[in-house]
Amino acid sequence: xxxxxxxxxxxxxxxxxxxxxxxxxxxxxxxxxxxxxxxxxxxxxxxxxxxxxxxxxxxxxxxxxxxxxxxxxxxxxxxxxxxxxxxxxxxxxxxxxxxxxxxxxxxxxxxxxxxxxxxxxxxxxxxxxxxxxxxxxxxxxxxxxxxxxxxxxxxxxxxxxxxxxxxxxxxxxxxxxxxxxxxxxxxxxxxxxxxxxxxxxxxxxxxxxxxxxxxxxxxxxxxxxxxxxxxxxxxxxxxxxxxxxxxxxxxxxxxxxxxxxxxxxxxxxxxxxxxxxxxxxxxxxxxxxxxxxxxxxxxxxxxxxxxxxxxxxxxxxxxxxxxxxxxxxxxxxxxxxxxxxxxxxxxxxxxxxxxxxxxxxxxxxxxxxxxxxxxxxxxxxxxxxxxxxxxxxxxxxxxxxxxxxxxx
Amino acid sequence: xxxxxxxxxxxxxxxxxxxxxxxxxxxxxxxxxxxxxxxxxxxxxxxxxxxxxxxxxxxxxxxxxxxxxxxxxxxxxxxxxxxxxxxxxxxxxxxxxxxxxxxxxxxxxxxxxxxxxxxxxxxxxxxxxxxxxxxxxxxxxxxxxxxxxxxxxxxxxxxxxxxxxxxxxxxxxxxxxxxxxxxxxxxxxxxxxxxxxxxxxxxxxxxxxxxxxxxxxxxxxxxxxxxxxxxxxxxxxxxx
Lengths: 408, 240
What we know:
- The complex is a heterodimer.
- Chain A is globular and about 65 Å long.
- Chain A is an alpha/beta fold.
- Chain A has helices at residues 2-13, 18-31, 67-73, 118-126, 354-361, 367-383, 388-403; strands spanning 76-83, 86-92, 97-102, 130-135, 144-151, 155-156, 159-164, 169-178, 183-184, 187-192, 197-206, 211-220, 225-232, 237-246, 252-261, 266-275, 281-290, 295-304, 311-321, 327-336, 341-350.
- Chain A folds into 2 domains: 2-351, no CATH class; 352-408, no CATH class.
- In chain A, helix 2 runs antiparallel to helix 4 (118-126), helix 5 (354-361) crosses helix 6 (367-383) and helix 6 (367-383) packs antiparallel against helix 7 (388-403).
- Chain B is α/β, with parallel strands linked by helices.
- Chain B has one domain: Rossmann fold.
- Chain B has 9 helices and 10 strands.
- The radius of gyration of chain B is 17 Å and the shape is globular.
- Classes of the chains: A alpha/beta, B alpha/beta.
- The A-B interface holds A 354-356, 358-367, 369-370, 373-374, 376-381 and B 50-53, 73-75, 77-79, 83-84, 86, 89-96, 99-101, 103-105, 132-133, 149, 153.
C-alpha cells in the first residue's frame, strides 16, 4: 500500500490540522489492512482489494445530481449536498437543528473506538472534514434532514456525526451515489441523549465498480431510541458495519438492513449490538436477495455485559437466493455474560416461497410477475417503517433495479 | 354462458390417490355446494383445479368453456376464468393487494375504488387492504378479503373452500349476499365447499353434491342437506 500512503502523506501535509490527523494515519499503518482471519472480515473478498489503486480525493466542480436524488431532496426540510465527503451546500432550515461543516477534525474525537478497524481509523486521518448535525434538547424536528453524498473522486472518507438532544427527535435520510471505481469509506456516529429519538435511513446506490466500506455507531443513552435502515443496492463490494452501544437503561435500538445482489456483487453486513446496561432492547432484522453470481455475508454479534439484566436482544437474517450461482453466508454470534436476559437469533437461506407464489398465481398473476412482486415485497417490508413518501421513491427505484436482475 | 366441466378427475397428494374420478359441471349463475366428511377430497378438488404445488393430477379433464385447464399453469387457469377463494388464505409479506390485483389484470386506474367498493360490500374496513396481502388480518377478515378480490377480478367460475368457517353470522350473511349478487351481476358460477348447513340458509343452492372417498356419490337439492343433517355421511360411504 506504499503508493497509496505516498498520496495520503502528501495530502495530509497540506492540511492545517495535520497534527491531529497524523496519529490516525500512523495507527492505520501500524494496524495494516484487514485480513479475513479477523471474524468481522471473515468471508470478505479482501484478495481483490488493492489500496494502491486509489488516491485521496480532492473534490472539484459541482456535485452531480440524479432524478432520484432530486426527488429525495424535494422531501427534505434541510438538504445537505456533499461531493467526495466535502459539504458543498446546506439549504433549508428546521428550528432547533444546527448543521455545521468543519474542514478541520476535532482533536477530542473518540478514535480509540476504531482501533480494531483500520479502514475506519483511516477515515479519521483522511476525512474531507466533519459534518455535524445537532438537534437541540426537546426539539421535535419536523420533516426530514436529507444528506446527498455524491462521489466522483478516487478514495473518499466522509465523516458524519449526528447528535440528538434530550427528548428531541430527528429523521434523517442519506443517499450515496456516483463512485465509479472509487473507494468510499464513510464513518458516522449517532449520539442520542436521554429519551431522544433518531430515525435514519441510508440508501447506497453507488456504481457497481465502487468499494463501499462503511462504519456507523449508534450510542444510546437512557430511554433513547434509534431506528436505522441500511439499504445496499450498488457497489462491487458493499460493506456496512453498524454498531449500537446501549449505554442507558430503557434504550431501544432497531437496525434493519437489506440489499439486492446483482452480477458479482458482494454485500457484507456486520453488526454489533452492545448492551452495556440492563433493561435495554435491540432488534436486528437483515433481509436481502442475491441474484446472478452475487453473494452476501452476514455476521452479527449480540454482546451483553454482566449485570445488564432484563436485556432483550434479537437478530434475524433472511436471505433470498434468486439463482443457483448466488451464495449467502450467515453467522450470528452471541456473547452473553448475564443470565437474566432474553436473546434470540434466527437465520435462513432459501428460494422464494412456492406456496406464496402459487397464491399470487392463483389470483391470475403470471409466474414472472409473481416473483417480481415477491422480491419487491421483500424490500417493501423493509421500507415500510420509513416515511411514506421516501419509502415510495425507494420502492420505485428498487423496482427499476429488479427489472434488470435475472431470476432463475 | 360459461361452463366448467370436470370429468373423471384423479389426483394424488404424495403417494396417495385422493380424487378417484370426480365428475361435476357448473354453469354461469348456478350455485353448487359440495359437502362431505373430512378427508373425502373436497379441498383437494379445489387445489387440483387451481394447480397448487404438491397436487398431482393423474387423470381426467377439467374444461372451462372448452379450454382444458389442467394443462395450463395456475395463472393461466385463473385468467381463463377460474378463481379459488382459499380456506386458509396465505400471507404474502411486502405485496400490497392493489399491486397484486393489477398484476392479475385489474385496471390500475380504478383498482383502489374497486377494492373500496367490494370491501364495503362484505363489511371489511378498506384500510385493512392497504396492508400487505393478508398480513395481520384475522381469519374472518382474510375470508372477506378473498371475496373482495373476487369482486374486483370478476371471474366466470369461483370455488369457495369453506368460506363460512371463521366468519361470524353477520359477516357470513354479507359474504353470501355478495356471492349471490355476483351470480346475477356477471353470471358467476359458484362451487362452494362447506361442512355446515348454515351456508345453505344464506346462499341458495341449485345443486348439492356429496363427496365420499374421492368421488361425487350423490347429487340433489336442499333435501339432501336435510338428509345429511339427519343421518350423517355414513349412508354415503357405501356408495363410494
